[in-house]
TrEMBL record, chains A, B:
Residues 36-215 form the FAD-binding PCMH-type domain. SUPFAM superfamilies: FAD-binding/transporter-associated domain-like, FAD-linked oxidases, C-terminal domain. PANTHER family: GLYCOLATE OXIDASE SUBUNIT GLCD. Pfam families: FAD-oxidase_C, FAD_binding_4. It comes from Streptomyces daqingensis. This is FAD-linked oxidase. Transmembrane segments: none annotated. Its cofactor is FAD. It comes from the Bacteria. Keywords: FAD, Flavoprotein, Oxidoreductase.
Length: 455, 455
């Protein structure tokens, strides 16, 4: 037994330390298949804060890197193992510790699955909005690590908006509490938000106080077909300029629609260039949808089809949620971009992405959280074809360059991981990068937490 | 002319550097009269980013402390001068640089007055929610410095929720951009939120990208009278547990009501122990108010009076906004607490505050952003009476101790300044304090920015 394994077992039950290479290899990577991943020395599955502290103290003593993991549904390689690291899986810390309807808060461990929390708070008439497409698998800890978004963001914002306070185990094993359990609080610097989206590079979240909302009415959706992605982008702007507050505003292009039909046999319209889904969870969603339908037609929609029932609306949302899996199921492999631009530049972003597709001779399926200006151009390529792979990487980069040019960001919700490190430096600029590295140095002076990510 | 003045004038117009002691003395303090304040060596009033950079470069070269200031309406002494410092007033950087209805964003300089921005965006059908009571005077830069709240927070959150990106001049004069201009973005650590609420101790905000909302319908309010503050706190919990989303939920106790009547002759009921104001800006506020009225009665309200008109509602809000001035106008002087507790502990907080008042034999007027659990107990005392002053400080501290005991924070929205330094350390604990000091050291290694505040 290695010294590392022996020391880990001093503070963890035997079944919480895995070292069989066949088993540990299965923890090596998230869903970004093409990102490099190392070979872990061990996988630990703690059940308590004290056990996490023991892992970090051991790692610090032996100078071993630690990679915190949730459900590994990430799309940037942020949870990928480093060679010789300890993979710190939080999956067994999956207790919901409290739900308080008067305070509209929940207290959870990091391994709670998003959908499990959502259903649990629903029973109290409450709602936890953040809903990444992987919500049936992904964990709250992982959501916090990436500041995950989802379909609800256009009205309800991202995970960051729902994290009030955290308990974090630092690199050296000390426990720090950040933030608060209250609706408001400004005592000192906002350390909570520093950890949200830090991709496991600053500390290990072991407990979170989350804000909840009252459960909204069920939403009703429409689908509008457009002759061009730019026309759909124009419709998005018209809707927002008119003061509407949709609960969902999603776009799928023709490539995406075909892929979804192939996977799900849903019979979405394939002759249209762009399908826009808009939903409302207001007191009279039918009236809101009627007004939005008119705005879509004014922007050039060839057809506007409101869902008749909640079930029909839910079917449209399922189509959108299946996009990632549908594009993954296409022949070859995919690289998914995550560029977010100001909403007013969405049409430019969509047209520019089509130009990139043409220039590099590659299929790029686009879906977008259109209401947020957050596009997911998915570059499809044959990984066995060297030239196509090179072109795919160039196209992937060209899309990020375009996003920055349009005043946007290289990542709206998926994070940087190992996939966009070079681009993070470009977006932050030298002063910003220096300060972010300073933060990392402050909180993880030995560089043990999730090394090789972000910077 | 001192070397400091000479160097400052090399990069600033003559009218932007004030050194007349009678003039500079008027910039020495904010509205927390009883907090210590030093004597500034100079006051500078830059109009551009470059001028701010010149000030910080000069200060760094000469090792002179700099105290950034907005309208000095703060309540914790956070903008108070240090001896020999340069007061850096951002009041002349007051341009609204852009308002974009499709993106629902505004780009502003720090000296823009809150109410000026509110009215400007209203003309585009948009709304900037944060509304501190001082909104007609206070600046966006000051609001960012304190992460200011207001009456709207129960539905719309605090300033922090509306800051998407910042341009910040660092202590050494370098310019750093943080965040984004987009609805979403997770590229690297959230440095934006680190500056929000940092009370001018980490950098000088010179430009902000703010999120806006569509303008909500006008709100309609009710006033409910309760036989005890605890009963009002119970009503607050019942309303929130029932899934309502009020746009305002404010409480005034009898001392406060009398003080407001003395100042404004408004004729608020003085025989009641606690008056709860609740408002809705929903599609049918009358129906929501009727439901809430019933909940108030179930919680023991002796009388529930819904406003008949928007004008009547606005009058109730004006009463609440005048509280600070009304309590200030009482004989003697006041110290205003800002404790925020979980909403479910509001009744305990209010009863505990009454016990503190009795124990120390002092009048303590309480108003509260009740929906947020954010109470403002205001300790009234005669500053010329040594014993009363000592008791006032003890009562002020006892209230913060009670807040922490109930799982709350020592400051919901006013910040730490010089007033609550010792208490910040208590709330954060040693590990939290060490990390916050590390952040300060990273961004301001010479300790020149607003020294003596927070820690």
């Amino acid at each position: 037994m290695s010294e590392l394994t022996a020391r880990l077992r001093e503070g963890l039950p035997a079944d919480a330390v895995l070292t069989d290479p066949d088993v540990t290899a299965s923890y090596a990577r998230d869903m970004a298949d093409f990102c490099p991943a190392g070979t872990p020395a061990a996988v630990v599955l703690p059940r308590s804060v004290e056990e996490v502290q023991h892992v970090m103290r051991t790692a610090t003593a032996l100078r071993v890197p630690v990679v915190p993991q949730g459900a590994r549904t990430g799309l940037s390689g942020a949870a990928n193992a480093a060679d010789g690291c300890v993979v710190l899986s939080l999956l067994r810390m999956d207790r919901i510790l409290a739900i308080n309807p008067a305070d509209r808060t929940a207290v959870v461990e990091p391994g709670v699955v998003n959908a499990v929390l959502t259903r649990a708070v629903n029973e109290h008439g409450l709602h936890y909005p953040p809903d990444p497409s992987s919500w049936e698998q992904c964990t709250i800890g992982g959501n916090i690590g990436t500041a995950a978004g989802g379909l609800c963001c256009v009205k309800y914002g991202v995970t960051a908006e729902y994290v009030l306070g955290l308990d974090v185990v630092l690199a050296d094993g000390r426990l720090m509490s950040t933030g608060r359990s209250t609706a408001k609080g400004v005592a000192g610097y906002d350390m909570t938000r520093l950890f949200v989206g830090s991709e496991g590079s600053l500390g290990v979240v072991v407990r979170a106080v989350l804000a909840l909302r009252p459960r909204p009415p069920r939403q009703l959706a429409l689908a509008a077909e457009f002759p061009s992605a730019a026309a759909a982008g124009d419709a998005v702007c018209r809707v927002m300029e008119s003061g509407h507050v949709p609960s969902l505003m999603e776009l799928m292009d023709r490539t995406t629609l075909r892929a979804v039909n192939d996977l799900t046999k849903m019979g979405l319209p394939e002759s249209t260039e762009a399908l826009l889904l808009v939903a409302f969870d207001t007191h009279d969603p039918g009236a809101d949808l009627a007004a939005v339908g008119e705005l879509c037609e004014a922007a050039g929609a060839s057809q506007v089809v409101p869902a008749e029932t909640e079930a029909e609306s839910e079917l449209l949302l399922q189509a959108r949620r299946s996009v990632h899996y549908a594009l993954e199921a296409l022949p070859g492999t995919t690289m998914i971009d995550d560029v977010c631009v100001p909403r007013s530049r969405l049409a430019d972003m969509l047209e520019g992405t089509a130009a990139v597709s043409e220039k590099y001779g590659l299929t790029i399926g686009v879906c977008a959280h259109a209401g947020d200006g957050n596009t997911h151009p998915t570059v499809c390529f044959d990984p066995d074809d060297e030239d196509e792979t090179r072109r795919a990487h160039e196209a992937f980069d060209a899309i990020m360059a375009l996003g920055l040019e349009l005043g946007g960001t290289i990542t709206g919700e998926h994070g940087v991981g190992v996939l966009k490190k070079e681009w993070l430096a470009r977006e932050l600029g030298p002063v910003g990068l220096e300060m972010q590295r300073g933060i990392k140095q402050l909180l993880d002076p030995l560089g043990l937490l999730n090394p090789g990510k972000l910077f």
